[in-house]
Amino acid sequence: MDTYRCDILIVGGGIAGLWTANRLLQAGWNVLLLESVALGAVQTLASQGIMHSGVKYGIDGSNREIAQQLKTLPPRWMDCLAGKGELDLSTVKVLSPDQYLWSRDRLVGGFTSSMAGKAMQGEVEDVPKERWPEVLKANPPSGSLYAVKEAILDIQSVVQSLAKPLRGRAIIGQITKFHTSDKGVDALEVSIAGGQMIRLEAGAFVFTAGEGNEQAAVALGFGMEVTQRRPLRMVLAKGLPQPVYGHCVTTSPKPRATITSHPYEGKWVWYLGGEIAEKGAAMSDADTLKRAKSEMESIFPSLNWNDVEWACFAVDRAEPRDPKSQLPPEPRLLARGNSIIAWPTKLVYAPLLADQVMKSLPALGLQPTAPGDFSQLPAAEVGQLPWQQSLQWIRL
Ligand SMILES: Cc1cc2nc3c(=O)[nH]c(=O)nc-3n(C[C@H](O)[C@H](O)[C@H](O)COP(=O)(O)OP(=O)(O)OC[C@H]3O[C@@H](n4cnc5c(N)ncnc54)[C@H](O)[C@@H]3O)c2cc1C
To answer: Has residue 253 been placed in a domain?
Structure first.
């Protein structure tokens, strides 16, 4: 079995692994990234690409901690998008520079007063009617329409940008065995293309594998109890004439629907999360789609929903378990010896997670070594967005 050695092995090429690997590479470390499916494959490419600034979490006064934390992150991303940040995301497509918050219900006093306060502080803008997007003019909110400066990114272009500097250092393979000791992980045995086995050794191992972190947590002796999954069934509606971005809210802390729009086949795919996906997690595909259509007919009655094609798929948010809250408030790292298990808990938190990984390295007493040659190993490719995959589209 051939052995390859690097300073830091990142396991998992979602947003957390890609961001961290780029930062480590810039800092001069000999980094290798191991991915088992495709770069961005699971949560990252399934995400809605929203640069949350915390406004959504502050509406009902709960989750204030998350709202405060989140405020600091979008500016770091914006710098990267402008080509003057810690990483170069200047080729990333911004689908929308902001998104809307609105309600179709009459009894939303908490929402209205919270938004009025945020408008006073300049966190949201009460948009005058003449500037409402066509689709909301035709399907007006029950009250004001608020705009939030939260960009929506084309997440595949984010993954492509982050994959570029890692060419020759992001490989595809499946872990078949962990070699562990009281120092953490000594080596991983990995199966690569053609059934060949290789051994990967590193000064430090950073697991950013989303649901794959469960396997690492067990191997490192933390057990499954440090992890949790929160299931969703995301819905796609294909063939819409116009885009819309935002949350249609009710009195519940969860939006009734969170909608992002993505150009596809000459029209738009509306990608539906919020309560549509949360409630759908406990329903069949057919019932999820039926409920989603009825929600969309109620929120956007002027649109012709009979010409739209529908699909859905299940995806879990893979997170650290928080003893106090079902919703983990921040990125989390667990360290044992030379190994770190890390969860960003949100796309937008990836820069903070990378900071935390970088800060924990000096304690390991490692020194950067010369860049290794991993060119004989199979390269990991960028994965596909949900609507680019083979889904079962139906008309309802
Ligand atoms: C439907 C949905 C919508 C979301 N929308 C947003 C949003 O709009 N804004 C936001 O900020 N956050 C959002 N999130 C949260 C955000 O997407 C996640 O927190 C983030 O993508 C997690 O990134 P990650 O890199 O930790 O995990 P992942 O993206 O899941 O990446 C893990 C990677 O590790 C690989 N892997 C797994 N096991 C192994 C193994 N054994 N060996 C090697 N590789 C392995 C996987 O194939 C995958 O590529 C959303 C999440 C979901 C599910």
So the answer is: no
Q: How far apart are CA 159 and CA 200, in angstroms?
A: 24
Ligand 1 and 227: CB distance under 6 A = no
pLDDT tens digits for 129-178? 999 999 999 999 988 999 999 999 999 999 999 999 999 999 999 999 99
Q: Which residue range(s) make up the domain with 7?
A: 2-44+159-228+321-378
Q: Can you tell me the distance from the alpha carbon of 396 to that of 391, in angstroms, rounded to the nearest whole number?
A: 15
Give domain status of residue 208, yes or no.
yes
d(CA 189, CA 199): 5
Contact, 187 vs 199, CB < 8 A? yes
CB of 161 closer than 6 angstroms to any ligand 1 atom: no
Q: Tell me whether residue 274 is in a domain.
A: no
- Split into its structural domains, the chain has a count of 1
Cβ–Cβ < 8 Å for 308, 395: yes
Structure-block tokens of residue 329? 């408030």
275-to-17, 255, 272, 395 alpha-carbon distances in Å: 29, 6, 9, 22
Q: pTM for this structure?
A: 0.96
Residue numbers in the chain where pLDDT is lower than 70: 56-67, 107-109
pLDDT (tens digit per residue) in 117-126: 788 877 899 9
Going by alpha carbons, the residue nearest to atom 15 of ligand 1 is 346
Give me the phi and psi of 233, to 5 degrees please.
-125, 100
Assigned domain for 151 exists:
no
For the domain that residue 342 is a member of, what is the CATH number? 3.50.50.60
Determine the residue type at 157. Answer: S
State how far the Cα of 340 lies from the Cα of 190, in Å rounded to an integer.
Answer: 19
Distance CA 55, CA 58 (A): 5
* Ligand 1 mutation target, pool 10, 99, 279, 346, most atoms within 8 A of CB: 346
